[in-house]
Design a protein that fits this description.
Chain lengths: 483, 484
């Protein structure tokens, strides 16, 4: 996805540099939960996907999900991390949606360390500190008051999400603007989708972002950071970072200091507010989880993960750009890859489809709803009909929608819709008739009066009741004029 | 003083052959319970109806010519921290009031497969924290040999149930000696398997890296049979050991000729070991030598730090394991205006003093800034103990020493000062820290006429050898195993 910079970033406008590190939590797309056999599924009736293990009932024990480990390693390798022996730990704190009042996570020995992600536009490398496995909590709904636990009348807890596998991906503080941050999350999301590690839906909470933000004069050591929670969209992420950087700069410029604290993004008010200060921070009392043995994937397992690693978004963008003869950072290319339509586009181009028209369809007509039953040969055939002037752009869009829905043949669909009348021969006949009926104007046009092109196109359109393709008509008129 | 003690294997043999109906066995044990439970209080719950129903099923299978299993018809008492489906599991704590587990522990399933019959849930120190059952929220269990004395703990109810003839066998859990010490004080056999040999699935966690379920019985052979029934890999417990359990019972008759026995100096000289207890232990060691074992003293220096390390690791893990009892989902809830106050009131009302003490100790030991000095250092001591024990096992097949420093003590004798109570575990703790198997075998009585236990320890998965040595001690015990 492209990131357009609409607001001037705090850093460039004031001579300050914003330093950002992101923590991304993403739910792994496993069939079952991290430590039990309950389905890992969003949207079911509350408290139906639960068992003694994910409810943390006395005497229950966790058993690690192999698929979660495989997906974690796959994402790790996709981020060029070192995959290594790891240990689970308990993170202890009390909250009603956490069944055991501790979260099983990885602490000092995570499974993935020292990776890198390349931002698509700038080519900047963002370091990945770690990407570790942990379990999700349940979901609380606080009824009454301000929707927070403190003043709620009562709270409801749904444990369906408790024990869902998460990967926490922690970047190094290598990002320098809100645009960078959004580009990082977009690219990470594309990698998560490409590797089938997660469905990465921010709106369903399967991808959640916390941002660590600080500011400094370029070249100075890092400033004191604040962690911002509750960033539920790329828009919120960008706005929150901009707001927070300005807040910190204003504090420093007015002689105050930035306090190390956790802040909450309020989307409606467009501002961050203190959630808790360092003094109020929980002591999580981490210690090794005695119910699980160390996780030490052997070389064969890692090799299998490597072998199954798909081509990553960056590689796919390069491939599509090469096939289409456009730059790798062209918006259509990024969108095609993000939506998983690049394979279709490359194949349609290979099958003879005009690259520009193929990309146009992908970007504008397929990106939102998806390609459904469309196959590359069909897309190529449709594009050829357009090129041949048999379909207008508007008609092609209609036919394409039908192809997506039914998987049908473009010519048959066009015929059924009554679009087939304007074949190349019919168009040529219509053009010749218009020329014959307007001999004077034609002579002037042929002798160089170019502005008459509009007149002839208009006449042909009128004669064909708008069924002719404007570009095809133009081309035909030029050809007849011997231009 | 105690009921006529018939071996569990003898009961099973009679039931399997059809000589004696399981229904009669159950009725006889229920009669024994009826006669003395009011003074002993071994059980939190007697499952008379369920036991009778199970006996009917066993007898039907025998009548149909089927083999109901190696422990057919043997009544087994379960420590009340082992989950039983639909049946209250209290850990002798108010906080689990009303909770009925929706599932059964793996060991309970395995008992059923072996044909054993669960006859009741036994009393314990709350959440297995204690050495006398005086910490039970439901009142203490009394020692069948002298009801003015404690039965030991925390599996005091299980040990008393076996000693009093209420059950042919019992299961306990051993985190720092909680099977072996009450076995010693009640004059029965009690064994802690290698860590991971018996599934912990369904055992309410106390200190997860130390907890292990094991048998209590009236003979070494019975303990071996129960161990064989419950041991083995369980996919629901990742810490369970995949290797197959060998036929340990077959090893019992092999004798100890040539067996290398090390007498652990540090355990025999530990703080508070009574002279009469030590005299009995020495007598048992002489008996082993007489039976052909090669006996030598051995120093295992690091074990003297065991108690200190244990009382950091154990509360640390317990503080985390017991965090889930918060009034939100099950068990006791004392309502309050806010969630935080509800937590406070529920936990204050639900937990006894010893549980609170361990939660506070453990929370402190894991706190930022203290972790390395306490929990981290304790784990390094644990490594040291394992290293020293491994070194000893290069020269010896088994190690021996006392199980407990004294015979059964009077109620209240050690409740004023927790440290005095903790010292009861000084000889048993090293095996929990190392994860090695150990067994307590009754061997005569102290000056007060109360039972003394001798402890045999073995390296990881050394159960067969350990049972061999235990059988030799049992055979040489004054008056034999029915002496009590």
């Amino acid at each position: 996805m492209t990131v357009s910079s609409t607001t001037p970033s705090a850093s460039t406008s004031t001579g300050w540099e914003t330093v950002i590190g992101l923590e991304v939590h993403t739910e792994l797309a496993t069939r079952t939960k991290l430590f039990c056999g309950c389905p890992n599924r969003f949207g079911d009736e509350p408290n139906t996907n639960v068992c003694p293990v994910c409810l943390g009932l006395p005497g229950s024990l966790p058993v690690l999900n192999e698929q979660a480990v495989t997906l974690a390693m796959r994402l790790g390798r996709a981020l060029r991390c070192e995959v290594r022996r790891s240990i689970f730990a308990r993170k202890n704190y009390f909250y009603p949606d956490m069944p055991k009042n501790y979260q099983i996570s990885q602490y000092d020995l995570p499974i993935n360390v020292e990776g890198a992600l390349e931002l698509p536009h700038s080519g900047a490398i963002v370091g990945i500190e770690r990407a570790h496995i942990e379990e999700d909590t349940g979901k609380s709904t606080h009824v009454g008051g301000g929707g927070r636990i403190h003043d709620a009348g009562y709270s409801l807890v749904d444990y369906n999400r408790a024990g869902v596998p998460l990967l926490e991906i922690v970047s190094k503080p290598d990002l320098r603007s809100s645009d960078d941050a959004r580009a990082y999350v977009s690219e990470l999301r594309a990698i998560l989708l490409a590797t089938d590690a997660s469905d990465a839906k921010m709106e369903e909470g399967s991808l959640r972002v916390d941002a660590n933000v600080s500011v400094r004069r370029p070249g100075d050591p890092f400033g004191t950071r604040c962690e911002i929670k509750n960033l539920n969209s790329l828009r919120s992420l960008g706005r929150a970072i901009e707001y927070e950087a300005r807040r910190q700069i204003e504090l420093i410029e007015s002689g105050e200091v930035v306090r190390l604290e956790t802040r909450h993004w309020n989307e409606d008010e467009g501002r961050t507010g203190t959630l808790r200060t360092k003094e109020e921070a929980e002591d999580y009392r981490y210690f090794p989880e005695p119910d699980l043995v160390p996780l030490d994937p052997d070389d064969r397992w890692i090799a299998r993960v490597e072998a199954e690693l798909p081509v990553l978004p960056a590689g796919r963008r390069t491939a599509l750009a090469a096939a289409a003869g456009v730059a790798p950072d062209a918006p259509a290319v990024a969108i095609a890859v993000e939506r998983g339509l690049d394979g279709l586009a490359v194949a349609a181009i290979a099958a003879g489809g005009d690259p520009a028209r193929v990309l146009t369809h992908v970007e504008h007509n397929l990106a939102v709803e998806g390609a459904g039953g469309l196959d590359p040969a069909g897309l190529a055939a449709l594009v050829s009909m357009e090129t041949a002037g048999e379909l207008t752009a508007t008609q092609a869009k209609d036919v394409l929608a039908e192809m997506v829905a039914t998987g049908g043949d473009p010519a048959a669909i066009a015929k059924a819709k009554g679009y087939e009348a304007m074949g190349a021969d019919d168009l040529a006949a219509a053009v010749d008739q218009v020329i014959a009926a307007n001999a004077d104007q034609w002579t002037r046009f042929v002798e160089g009066e170019g502005k008459l092109m509009g007149f002839f196109v208009g006449e042909v359109m009128r004669a064909t009741k708008g069924q002719a393709d404007g570009r095809a008509v133009t081309a035909l008129l030029r050809q007849r004029a011997g231009a | 003083m105690t009921a006529p003690a018939q071996s569990a294997l003898d009961i099973a043999a009679e039931v399997r052959s059809g000589e004696r109906p399981a229904g009669d066995v159950v009725d006889e044990h229920l009669a024994a319970i009826e006669a003395r439970e009011h003074e002993i209080h071994a059980f939190n719950l007697v499952l008379a109806d369920q036991a009778r129903e199970a006996a009917v099923a066993i007898d039907r299978r025998v009548a149909a010519g089927e083999d109901p299993g190696p422990l057919a018809g043997v009544p087994v008492a379960l420590k009340d921290n082992i989950c039983t489906e639909g049946i209250p599991t209290t850990c002798s704590s108010r906080i689990l009031e009303g909770w009925r587990p929706p599932y059964a522990a793996t060991v309970v399933e395995r008992l059923a497969e072996a044909g054993a019959i669960v006859i009741g849930k036994t009393n314990l120190d709350e959440f297995a924290m204690g050495s006398s059952t005086e910490n039970s929220a439901f009142g203490p269990t009394r020692n069948p040999h002298d009801t003015t004395r404690v039965p030991g703990g925390s599996s005091g109810g299980s040990a008393a149930a076996v000693a009093a003839g209420f059950a042919g066998l019992a299961l306990g859990s051993d985190t720092g000696g909680s099977i072996r010490q009450p076995a010693a004080l009640c004059g029965v056999v009690g064994m802690k398997p290698t860590y991971g040999r018996v599934s912990r699935y369904g055992l309410v966690a106390f200190a997860s890296s130390l907890d292990q379920i094991g048998p209590l019985s009236r003979s070494v052979a019975d303990a071996a049979a129960l161990y064989e029934a419950i041991a083995g890999h369980d996919p629901r417990d990742t810490t369970s050991i995949p290797e197959r359990v060998g036929d340990v019972s077959a090893a019992l008759a092999e004798g100890v000729a040539g067996l290398r026995v090390g007498v652990v100096t540090e355990l025999c000289e530990a703080e508070g070991i009574q002279a009469d207890v030590l005299a009995r232990v020495r007598q048992a060691i002489d008996a082993l030598e007489h039976a052909g074992a090669k006996v030598e003293d051995v120093s295992v220096p690091a074990v003297v730090y065991g108690l200190t390390a244990y009382y950091l690791i154990n509360p640390a893990e317990a503080s985390s394991n017991l965090a889930r009892y918060d009034g939100v989902r099950y068990g006791l809830r004392v309502d309050a205006p806010t969630t935080g106050e509800m937590y406070d009131r529920t936990r204050t009302a639900g937990f006894g003093a010893e549980v609170e003490r361990r939660i506070m100790l453990g929370t402190y030991a894991l706190s930022a800034g203290y972790y390395d000095a306490f929990y981290g250092k304790a784990q390094r001591v644990r490594t040291l103990i394992i290293r020293d024990l491994d070194a000893a096992y290069e020269r010896f097949d088994v190690l021996v020493g006392p199980t407990a420093p004294s015979t059964a003590f009077p109620f209240g004798a050690k409740t004023a000062d927790p440290l005095t109570m903790y010292l009861n575990d000084v000889c048993t703790i090293p095996s929990n820290l190392s994860g090695h198997p150990a067994i307590s075998v009754p061997f005569g009585a102290g000056d007060d006429g109360l039972p003394v236990g001798v402890q045999v320890m073995a390296p990881a998965l050394g159960e067969a050898t350990m049972f061999r040595a235990a059988a030799a001690i049992e055979a040489a015990a004054p008056g034999g195993r029915d002496d009590a």
